[in-house]
Structures are given as structure tokens and as C-alpha cells.
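Worked Example 4.2. Read the sequence first, then its C-alpha cells.
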Amino acid sequence: MTETFLHYVWQHQMLLPGLTTVDGQPVAVLQQGTPNRDAGPDFFNARLRIGEVEWAGNVEIHIHSSDWNAHRHQRDAAYNNVVLHVVYEHDTDIFLQNGRCPFTLELKPYMHPSLVANYEALMVPPEAGIPCADRVGEVPQFLLTLFMERLAVERIEAKAGTVHRLLEESRGGWEQTCYWLLAHYFGGKVNAIPFELLAKATDIRLLARWRDNLQRTEALLMGQAGLLEGYFEDSYPRLLQADYEALRVGANLRPIGSHLWKFYRMRPSSFPTIRISQFADLVSQSKNLFDTMLQMTDVRDLQRLFNRQAAPYWNDHYRFDSPCARSSVKQVGTMQADMLIINAWVPLLFVFGAEHGQQQYKDQALALLGQMRAESNAVIRQWQAVGISPGNAAESQALLQLANGYCTNRRCLECRIGYQLLKRT
């Protein structure tokens, strides 16, 4: 038994009828009170009829009555307005700091056995990691749908932290934030930070000057990445090196350290060299990127925008001076394009709408997810195994939020699915 569960039971009044205090007076809960997340009693401003008298005051909840004394509430004047002490088991009488003895309600006789059993089952989940794996099918579909819509928004809001951080650093510059954010996610999980550092070290205005010159754009980014140091045998890196040196003298450029980039245990198609060349193609072919994307309401337009390819040199290479056995065009795949939309553009668009009070952009962000196919990963496969299959990216994002934000952290008491299962007594 936990106080958190008792708070939940009291807040939702999941109790059997006929409540009486430990001294036999009938209790009618007219209003259970407002939960208090700070110091002081657990519920403020409750309205209760105890016996023939209607009371207004606070409610304090403990597992045992003696916890009142263990927590030293008897010495705290902040608890003098407690009308009702709600406990799981009553083991001693208690007193307020002013000497008054509050009414005590023992919950144990008024909690249905199946309510406790349902809670215990959620707290001891199966190996799959989804606490309600064997019972989620009992929840009505329309309630699942409503909850998923809320979870999709929660997922976007959870990702908005990176947007807000970059927006603050750019002093409210949306174009700059967009450039930095796309760079961050172009690097993938492994190289996100060095890619962001690269973007911050390479002024977007300098890139704009060479926007129509792909070679110079790539030279600028590769050089700022610290990847053009030393001697090269191939002519292409030597050309990039010469272009970068000419640019560096005029713009007083300082590259980031090449040691920051991770190549180890990565698929060659995700090497930083390939990603930087693809990013150069995006930057060189895109003018006013943020404003351009803002007008795109069809996800296919965004996918085409991100479907960039590395320079022809990289058809036969993954690193400078190291030819690969098989030639292939190094193009941004649909999966990576979708990840850029999901992780970078959708949160940025949502925050833009929130910051400007324009709901249409928040709706547009969710609509883009609804146009995309559902993701496929280990977490989604767990949900599919229990009968919940996402129909689009909005739903797969919702399920990821449910798993990572609720199930993993055992937040069943804050989950609408958990609520539905607990109350089925």
C-alpha cells in the first residue's frame, strides 16, 4: 500500500458506499478537495457532511494513523484546518497542534478487494514491460483514441525543450533556430551534438552567400567540421580544402575539433562525412528554409525537400581517400526524412504556433504526423503484441510517449488506461 494510491482512491472516490468515521459517524463526501502538490495537507477545501454537520476544511492522508505523529504534524499549525484524517489502517488517535482531534476515516473496509488487486497487478508488470499488457483490451476503443490524441501532443511538448533552448540562444530567430535544429537531428543520436556545434560555428549568413554553389557550401561545412585538415590524395578533398582555406582567411573561421565526430560502430551511410554532404545539399538548394517549410502542409513536400543526396564523390567513398567496394548514390532515405520531420520540424512548427498564439500551426504539426506512416521499432512491436497497432506517425508517437512517459515509470495512476482498469471493480 502506498500513499500515492490512497490519494488516487480519495481523489476519484473509488470507495464503497456507507462511509463512517472510526467512531461511527456517517460521512458524505460533497467535495473531496483540491490536491495539494506543495507542503501542507494533501487536499484543500474539502466539503464533508459528518454526522449532521457540514464541514469545510482540509484532508490529510496516511497509510497508518500513527504516520501523523511520525511526520510531526501534531507540531505544525499548518495542519490545524484538517477536518478529516483519511487512513488505510487506524492504529492510534491523533491530535492537531491546537489540541483538537480531527475525525478519522479508515479506508480499508471501503476499498473493494478487486481495486487493490488491480493496482497490485499494475505495479508488478509482465516481462513485456507494459503493466496492463493482459488487460488493455478491456478499455473501450473511443477512450483509447482520445487518450492517444492527448499523448501525441505530450510527445511533441516533450521534444519542445530542444526547440526552446535553441530559440533562446538565437534570441528568437526562427530561421536560425530551424537551421540549428535540423543540423542537430541530421547527425542522428550519435552525432547530434557535434552537428549542432558545426551549425553554430558556421554562420547561416555566410552559408547564404554561397547558397547556389554546392561545392563551396560543402567545403565550408567540411572545413568547419575539422575534416579538411592534413594531406589528401584524392582531387575532390583537395578542391574542398582549397575552397575552405580561401573562405577561412576572409571570414576568420574556426573549425570545431574533428575528434568530436563518431564513426565507430555506425553504418557507413550514416557517417558524418555523408551526412554533412547531404546537409550541404539541403542548405545550398534552400532559400529561407523556415519560411519555405512553413507553407508546406503536405508531408510529401517536406519529404521531397529533405530527400537530399551527397556529392557524386561520395558515391564511391564513405571517408576521404578511402574508396568503397560498391558504388551507390548516398541519398537521404525516407526513414531519415521522416525522422527529421517528426523530431525537428513538427516540434518547431508546434512551438511556433504556441509562441504566436496561432492554433492553425499547432494543428498543422499534428496533421503532418497523421499523414505519415507509423514508425516500426521495438516499443511499437510491444504494443502490437497486445493488440494496439498505430495507423500513422501520430499514433506511433503517442504509443512511444505512453511507453516511455508512463509505463516505464509506472505512472499508471496518471494514465487514462490505468484509471479505466482500476475502476473496473
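Now turn to a second chain, presented in exactly the same format:
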Amino acid sequence: ELLGRVRVDLRQQDTVTRLDNIDLQLRGLGVTGNADWQQDMGRSSFAGQLSGADIGKVLKAWGYTPTLSSNRFAVDVDMNWPGQPQQAVLTSLDGELALSLRNGQIYEVDSGARALRVFGLLNFNSIGRRLRLDFSDLFGKGLSYDHLRGKLRFEHGLVYSVEPFVLKGISSELDLAGQVDLA
């Protein structure tokens, strides 16, 4: 199966294996950055960015349900975890993750989103979109957004919002902050 393009500089220095200048294009997902595996300390790390166009298509290509879509997305990652690089598990991650998505929809939301669509029709901020005869935010399935961003901190199985997740659309602006115990 054709997965995509892979380019990386691999070097071994004493007990550290480094992957520098990572440049991957795999099933619609772009990955750039650097990674380390410190065998003597038993830790791995990755600092870089995951990016692409429609996150829904990327999720589907990797076998996940596409619960949201985007025109483009970027996820900045600075994480480390115990063990080898392939042993990364959500509950053992330490570090930060910043997410930014543009122009898409969140699918499988409850019917409360329909009321927000009606207000979007009357919203003066949407006049430019209406003049272009663009009503996709009103008739699409789910909750449309122009921008979705947030920043999370992972610490030993707990996830905290460093910056709240902010969803901005024509008919809504939602902020979400808090913490989650992944265990």
C-alpha cells in the first residue's frame, strides 16, 4: 500500500538516537520536526507539527471516524514519554499541544446547533459570505466554524487547557477550558 513520502536524517550519538529534519507526507498528513530516543534514560520525545488540508479526510485515511472537517489544520506538538518512540500512549505523554483548524464543521452534534444556524442567517458579520451566496454554514450537517484553536498541557495522564479551545463561527463563539483525567 502506498503511504506517501518519507524524508528524515537519522543519527546515533552514544545512547541517543536522533531523527532530525523529519518531513513526512502520509495519507494527507504532513509531519515535520525532530525526535529523540534516549536509551539510557528510557525516554522519547517529538517536537514538530502535524498539518494538512481536510482533517476529516486524514482521519478517514487513518481508519478513524471523520467527526470534523477543515479547510486546513495544524497541530504544534512538543511531547515526551517513557520508552521507545513507538510506545507513545496518551496516558503517559508529557508536554504541550496547540491545535488550529480553519473553515470546517463538527459533525454528529445534537439538534441544538440548528438554532445557531438560524442566528447565522441574520448575523451582520456574515454579510460578505451571504453576498457570495455561500450558505454552507446554515445547510451543512453539524456546526460550522471559521476557526477552532486551543492549547493543551499533558502531565502524567492529566490534560489541562493552557489556552481555552475557542470555536468561532458566523452564528457562534464557544470557549471550552478545563482538565481531563485520561486514565
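Notes for the reader: Residues 109-127 have pLDDT under 50 and may be disordered. The beta strands are 4-13, 16-26, 29-38, 43-52, 72-82, 94-106, 143-155, 158-168, 173-176, 179-181.
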